[in-house]
Specification:
The complex is a heterodimer of chains A (525) and B (406).
Chain A lengths: L5 H17 L3 H17 L5 H19 L6 H22 L6 H20 L5 H36 L17 H16 L9 H9 L12 H8 L7 H33 L7 H32 L17 H7 L2 H12 L9 H19 L3 H20 L1 H7 L5 H26 L3 H11 L7 H24 L10 H18 L13
Helix pairs in contact in A: 1-2, 2-8, 3-4, 3-6, 3-7, 3-8, 5-6, 6-7, 10-11, 10-19, 10-20, 11-17, 11-18, 11-19, 13-14, 14-15, 15-17
Chain B lengths: L2 H9 L3 H31 L9 E3 L5 E3 L4 E5 L4 E5 L20 E6 L2 H4 L9 H11 L4 E5 L7 H10 L8 E6 L1 H10 L2 E4 L2 E4 L8 H7 L3 H9 L1 H30 L9 H30 L3 E6 L2 E4 L2 E3 L7 H6 L1 E3 L2 H7 L17 H15 L3 H4 L16 H6 L4
Parallel strand pairs in B: 5-6, 5-7, 7-10, 10-13
Antiparallel strand pairs in B: 1-2, 3-4, 8-9, 11-12
Helix pairs in contact in B: 1-2, 2-9, 4-13, 5-10, 6-10, 9-10
Classes of the chains: A mainly alpha (525), B alpha/beta (406).
Chain lengths: 525, 406
């Protein structure tokens, strides 16, 4: 269910009183969170719950083993029983696709076999083998459900291009919502356990509640166990002030989504659904609209997720920090989807060698990280190209030493201000060009859009007026946020100002919400 | 005042009371500020049409216009007065149960579009149709049984329980895209194994609350004039409607949704299944209504209200109905007339109110209806002149008691 739907309002109105009743009892609170999170996620398709349970069961054991803690037989039984219970529950609920029990059973047996292998290995090797179990399971799920058809299709096309024709066995696979988010979160916990940066506990209930926590299950932020897991192992403080602060953060996210993102989306759709023959100005308006849409869509979701979590007493990390104020591509990635950027940095870029092995290796590592980061966004070449483009401009900036130059010349003087403004303009132009690769799904469309942008024709007054109407208030707010350093504008300042701002945002949501609600873009990733 | 000073004051005799009074005054001030700010916000940034609905419950379990109600609608495009007669119809007089000799009756059922929202009585569909048919030599009375928010199921219930007593010769049901959801939401009928059956005994959403609130002059003042209230009421209604449809669709998908096949996206398949289920229900209700009317020996017509795409582009709304409906039921469609008349400078639907027909749109619709009905065998029996002089009978005792279910 979507945060901006009536069904979710009903869900939360039912869930929250029950939560208040049990919130001081960690076990029952977490049981309630598991059941509610599974109801929330199962609303899309109850069969997807099996995947969540597979990831939960495997990573529960894998993190323990990877941390060097003993994995007892009772832990294995708990893990298997949890998977069996969720599988049975979801199949009973859907009343169809009973065959899914067979692959689950086969997978369980395979995992049990792997566990036997681990037990026979030397104690020193065991943590690594547990880590492989987690990586194999999560990346295997991701590879099959998200990338199988992409890989097979690309292989077939590649062979076809050299004259080898093969039958491609593409499958009808539904991409489960939020798969990339919760598998990455599960991997990070096991890796951190392996690195001894996190000490996993034996409660499967606490871990399952963390793994499926509904505010951030389907679109992040991708949390780290060190930060969030302890919150599931303690009673969370919750008072009216905390709840109010969470509610206001949710409201601000809702405004970003239903007022800005959904209202500018038609401007982008109108052009990118059929880019041929569009004027330069219409394409430019569409590109700006898409940049605004994707930002408000995703950062709006993140704010709603953080707000909801805070209403329950949990604190999630900031995922967006005014990314369109970035002056370099590196800074952009430090501000955009921060939880993914840092994940890629900590679990891919640094293990590859980061910037410790010379400049050429650093550039190579950066390109690999960004290419895979692009692929994370979707199983299509345009996302790979988008990632590659961002990798390339980051490499270029480092080669030219632009980041270092900007650090040396802070915007304290007129020259510095001009320099930073110029850097910002160039970076935003590059980011906008990057969105072209992101939003167009075929090479001809990409070429058409880029070609259109080079023209001088047309001036869609309505499109620019609509864009300005939705972008201008946001720009003013973000300028204030940047100047004051306060991201949560509805939670800062004198009471009457906060009250008036919150009232305005609420009225704007009621008055200007797009009539046709849209799914969040990042749910597809 | 410092915290210490406040504590000191509260500890004094009477200080606690004063603090409570101060709190109360602050809350009142905040409430007043909220209302004034909200009203100003709406009036400046998003002016709203103020269109109160004066409906109440009827003895036949669906909504009806409040008899003798008199109210106004204000939109950025038009201001309109509504007068409801003693029988709950938009008319300036009551109708006797027995029609005048030599006069045929046409009963019109619909939602706000045919009730004449955003047009004066002299421009509304029933008045126009009556004029046009009289001009064509037919002696007719056109009775307006439309009620804002109605779907086909409620129209049928009103016909069966109330309107058939007026002995109409011809019955017109409107069909617009909103009817599909209205029929699902009202749940007066349902399809079981492809057969239509009655479900809920009544559908009176929010009627009790509205009846209660209308007793207060302050509420009526707000409902009739506040744009903030109009916005909140319209959006909360929309929210509730969507929620009801989502919940009903969830129940449908749990039981009847087909499994995904081929390369179709499952959500699309489910959506298509919901849509088809809803359309099947509406088609079945329309067919049933036609059978009920035909069994009474009357003619049944479905009046299509086209969907406005833009000022010059319209779409058919009946083509989604079942082939049986399209084959068996006489349909009055103004679509071709709308398309012929469409000009960038002509509004057929209002654009800043709630999207009802303009007088020009009503005229086109009434023309299309009059052209079709001029061929009606039932109406051809009613010649002009006989009923033209029939006086309105607002004081008719039998008509006064009708609304209460005599």
């Amino acid at each position: 269910m979507l945060f901006n739907s009536g069904i979710f309002a009903l869900f939360f109105a039912t869930f929250f009183p029950a939560y208040l009743l049990v919130r001081r009892n960690i076990f029952w609170r977490n049981i309630l969170l598991i059941v509610s999170s599974y109801a929330f996620y199962g609303w899309w398709d109850a069969r997807f719950l099996i995947l969540v349970a597979v990831s939960t069961s495997v990573d529960y054991l894998a993190a323990l083993g990877a941390s060097g803690k003993p994995v007892r037989q009772v832990d294995g039984l708990k893990s298997a029983a949890y998977l069996a219970a969720v599988t049975a529950g979801s199949l009973l609920f859907t009343g169809r696709d009973w065959w899914l029990a067979a692959p689950v059973a086969a997978g369980t047996l395979a995992a049990a076999g792997w566990v036997r292998v681990i037990r026979r290995a030397t104690p020193a090797r065991q943590p690594r083998l547990w880590l492989y179990l987690s990586l194999g399971t999560n990346l295997g799920i991701l590879a099959f459900f998200k990338y199988f058809n992409f890989f097979v299709g690309s292989l077939t096309a590649a062979l076809d291009s050299i004259g080898v024709s093969i039958h491609s066995p593409t499958l009808s696979i539904i991409l489960p919502v939020g798969l990339s988010f919760y598998t990455f979160q599960a991997i990070s916990r096991t890796v951190d356990s392996y690195r001894r940066q996190f000490e996993p506990q034996y409660s499967i209930v606490n871990y399952a509640a963390y793994h499926a926590f509904f505010p951030q299950l389907v679109a992040g932020p991708i949390e780290r166990a060190q930060r969030l897991m302890p919150q599931f192992e303690s009673v969370r403080p919750l008072d009216l002030k905390t709840f109010g602060s969470g509610a206001l953060l949710f409201v601000w996210g809702l405004y970003q989504k239903v007022v800005i993102a959904d209202n500018v989306a038609p401007i982008a759709d109108a052009v990118f659904s059929a880019p041929a023959g569009q004027s330069a100005a219409a394409t430019c308006a569409a590109l700006l609209a898409f940049a605004l849409q994707i930002y408000c869509d995703f950062s709006g979701y993140s704010n709603m997720a953080r707000g909801l979590a805070r209403c329950l007493g949990f604190e999630l990390r900031i995922n967006f920090n005014l990314p369109y104020f970035a002056r370099t591509p590196s800074e952009f990635w430090q501000r955009w989807h921060i939880s993914l950027s840092t994940w890629l940095r900590d679990y891919l870029y640094i293990p590859l060698g980061g910037n410790r092995k010379g400049r050429s290796r650093m550039y190579g590592n950066l390109m690999i990280t960004m290419l895979l980061g692009g692929l994370w966004h979707g199983a299509a070449w345009n996302f790979v190209v988008w990632g590659g483009f961002h990798g390339a401009i980051q490499v270029l900036y480092r080669v030219l030493g632009i980041d270092a130059l900007l650090e040396r010349r802070p915007p304290a003087t007129v020259g510095g201000i001009v320099l930073h403004l110029a850097a910002w303009s160039v970076t935003m132009t590059l980011v906008l060009i990057g969105w072209v690769f992101f939003v167009t799904h075929t090479l001809p469309d990409t070429v058409t859009v880029l070609g259109n942008l080079l023209g001088t024709s047309g001036y869609p007054h309505d499109a620019f007026a609509t864009l300005a109407a939705y972008a201008a208030p946001l720009a003013l707010v973000e300028m204030y946020q940047r100047a004051s350093g306060r991201l949560e504008i509805l939670n800062t300042g004198p009471f009457l100002l906060r009250y008036t701002a919150a009232l305005s945002v609420l009225l704007a949501i009621i008055a200007f919400s797009a009539r046709s609600g849209r799914q969040f873009i990042y749910f597809d990733f | 005042m410092s915290v210490d000073a406040r504590l000191d004051q509260r500890s004094k005799p009477g200080g606690r009371t004063r603090a409570l009074v101060l709190r109360f005054l602050q809350a009142c001030g905040l409430l007043a500020f909220t209302l004034v700010f909200g009203e100003a916000f709406v009036r400046i940034l998003c002016p709203q049409p103020v269109m109160p609905r004066y409906v109440t419950g009827t003895d036949w379990g669906v909504r009806g216009n409040i008899p003798h109600a008199r109210y106004w609608h204000y939109t950025p495009e038009v201001s309109v007065e509504y007068r409801i007669n003693g029988q709950g119809m938009r008319a300036d007089h009551d109708y006797p149960l027995r029609k005048p000799a030599g006069t045929c009756r046409i009963a019109v059922f619909g939602d706000s579009l045919l009730m004449g929202y955003e047009v004066d009585l002299r421009d509304d569909f029933t008045t126009r149709l009556e004029e046009l048919l009289r001009a064509r030599g037919r002696s007719v009375e056109v009775l307006n049984f439309a009620v804002s928010g109605f779907g086909t199921a409620e129209m049928l219930r009103t016909y069966e329980a109330f309107a058939r007593r007026f002995d109409p010769d011809v019955v017109l049901f409107s069909w617009h895209v909103t009817d599909m959801e209205d029929n699902v939401r009202s749940a007066l009928y349902r399809l079981r194994n492809g057969k239509l059956e009655q479900a809920n005994p009544d559908y009176l959403p929010g009627v009790e609350t509205q009846d209660f609130l209308l007793k207060f002059a302050a509420y009526r003042l707000v409902a009739d004039h506040s744009q903030l209230y109009a916005l909140l009421r319209e959006r909360s209604g929309l929210f509730t409607k969507r929620l009801a449809v989502q919940l009903r669709q969830a129940r449908v998908s749990a039981g009847t949704a087909p499994a995904p096949s081929g390369d179709e996206d499952e959500e699309d398949v489910l959506h298509a299944a919901h849509l088809q289920a809803n359309l099947d229900l509406s088609s079945a209700i329309i067919e049933h209504a036609a059978q009920v009317v035909a069994a009474d020996g009357r003619e049944f017509y479905l009046v299509e209200i086209p969907l406005r795409v833009s000022r010059v582009e319209f779409r058919s709304t009946v083509d989604v109905l079942s082939p049986a409906v399209l084959a068996d039921i006489r349909i009055i469609s103004p679509l071709a007339a709308f398309e012929r008349a469409a000009r960038p400078d002509l509004k057929i639907y209002y654009e800043r109110g709630e999207g009802h027909l303009t007088p020009a749109g009503v005229k086109l619709l009434a023309n299309a209806a009059a052209t079709t009905l001029a061929e009606s065998p039932r109406l051809s029996a009613c010649t002009a002149g006989a009923a033209a002089a029939a006086p309105p009978l607002s004081a008719n005792p039998s008509s006064r008691s009708l609304f209460a279910g005599d």
